[in-house]
Specification:
The chain is about 50% helix and about 10% strand. By secondary structure, it is of the alpha/beta class. Strands 1, 2, 3, 4, 5, 6, 7 and 8 form an eight-stranded mixed β-sheet that branches. The relative contact order is 0.17.
Length: about 290
C-alpha cells in the first residue's frame, strides 16, 4: 500500500485507513511519504483515530503551523510538537504494537546530500522512528532539515511522492494507492522563480535543489504510472472526489469534512476492494504454482 503526502490533505488518508482498520484490512507492506508517513505508522500500529487526533483535534489546543509558530520556532511548522510531544505525551504512539504488526512499514525521505529518495525502516527505537517520520514530513521552505544517522533529510515527496516503483521492486506487483488529490491532477512545471528560490535556500545542497526543480515533473510521471497500473488492474486507487483542502488548512470544519470524505470513500469502495484483493491473491497463487 502506497500513501501519498500533502500536508493537511493527509487527513483524507486518515479517514480511509480508519475505515480499513475497522474492517481489519491488513496488508503486508506499506510505504508512507510525508504526511503519509504519519498515516503509515498509525496504520501499522493499528491506532484508529490517532491521525485525526494529531491533525485535526490537536488544533483546538495548539497551533501546528503559522505566524506565531514561526515567531517562536523560526520555522512555519512546529516539528517538535508534532514528533516529540504528541507521540510521547498528548497522543501516545503505540510503538510496541507497531513492532508486533505483521506489516512491513517503510518511510520515504529525501537525502539532502544526494537529492535521492531513501526508504527507511525502524523496529528497535521509537525515537529514531519519529526522527524518520519528521524527516519525511519536513516540507521544503517550511520546516528545518531533520537528521537521521547524521545525514540531513527532508520531505520524501521531493524525490518520490508516490513510490509505486519501489513497492514493485520489493516484489509487490499489486498495490493499493491512496492519493490526496482528485483524478486528473497534475502539477505545473517548476517556474523560474521557484527554481531560483530552491537554488538560493539550498545552495549548500545542490543535489537537493536540482531535485526540487524536477519535483513536479517526477510527480506527473508517477501519476501517469499510477493511471496505467490502475487500468491494468495492478493498482487499486483511492482518491478524493470532493474539492481538496489546502496543504496548510486550519479550518476545522473543512478538515472534519475531508476526514469523513476519506472514511466514506473507503466504505463505498470496500466491496470492490475486497473483490480486487481476492482476484490479486488468486493471480499471485497461480504464479507461485507456475514457478514451482
Amino acid at each position: 500500500m502506497i500513501l501519498e503526502g500533502g500536508g493537511q490533505r493527509g487527513i483524507f488518508t486518515g479517514g480511509v485507513l480508519d475505515y480499513l482498520m475497522e474492517r481489519r484490512v491488513v496488508v503486508p507492506y506499506v510505504i508512507g511519504v510525508s504526511a503519509g508517513a504519519c498515516n503509515a505508522v498509525d496504520y501499522t500500529s493499528g491506532q484508529i483515530l490517532r491521525t485525526k487526533e494529531c491533525m485535526l483535534d490537536a488544533q483546538l489546543d495548539y497551533e501546528l503551523y503559522g505566524f506565531h509558530t514561526m515567531v517562536r520556532t523560526r520555522h512555519f511548522m512546529n516539528m517538535d510538537l508534532i514528533f516529540d510531544q504528541f507521540p510521547n505525551h498528548d497522543y501516545p504512539f503505540d510503538f510496541r504494537a507497531f513492532v508486533r504488526s505483521p506489516t512491513r512499514c517503510l518511510i520515504a525521505a529525501t537525502n539532502c546530500v544526494t537529492g535521492r529518495a531513501e526508504f527507511l525502516e525502524e523496529y528497535h527505537s521509537k525515537a529514531r522512528l519519529m526522527d524518520i517520520c519528521r524527516a519525511s514530513s519536513s516540507l521544503p521552505f517550511a520546516a528545518p532539515m531533520a537528521t537521521v544517522n547524521g545525514i540531513p533529510m527532508m520531505d520524501g515527496g521531493i524525490a518520490d511522492s508516490v513510490p509505486v516503483r519501489r513497492a514493485m521492486a520489493d516484489g509487490f506487483e499489486y498495490n493499493i494507492v491512496i492519493l490526496t488529490r482528485g483524478r486528473g491532477y497534475y502539477k505545473k512545471e517548476t517556474g523560474s522563480s521557484a527554481a531560483r528560490l530552491a537554488r538560493l535556500c539550498y545552495r549548500k545542497y545542490p543535489n537537493l535543489a536540482r531535485t526540487l526543480m524536477r519535483r513536479n515533473h517526477i510527480y506527473n510521471q508517477e501519476m501517469d504510472l499510477v493511471d496505467r497500473l490502475e487500468r491494468q488492474g495492478r493498482a487499486f486507487v483511492i482518491r478524493p472526489k470532493m474539492p481538496c483542502v489546502s496543504r496548510t488548512e486550519t479550518d476545522l470544519e473543512k478538515l472534519e469534512d475531508f476526514y469523513w470524505h476519506g472514511y466514506e470513500t473507503a466504505e463505498q469502495l470496500y466491496p470492490k476492494l475486497r473483490e480486487w484483493l481476492a482476484q490479486r491473491e488468486e493471480c499471485v497463487s497461480r504464479k507461485r504454482l507456475l514457478i514451482k
